[in-house]
Amino acid sequence: MQELDLIIVGAGPVGLYAAFYAGMRGLSVAIIESAQVPGGQPQN
């Protein structure tokens, strides 16, 4: 099992930015999203 520093629930704009920011800081990140595509409301 892979160890993660951060798990983000939701791949909306804020979740994606948080994952990007954490990754730039060297953290290993996983994003959990219930929809088939990321993006949240802006995708509609």
Automatic annotation (TrEMBL):
InterPro entries: FAD/NAD-bd_sf. This is Thioredoxin reductase. Keywords: Membrane, Transmembrane, Transmembrane helix. The keyword Membrane applies. It holds the Pfam family NAD_binding_8. It comes from the Bacteria. The chain crosses the membrane at residues 6-24. It comes from Lactococcus lactis.
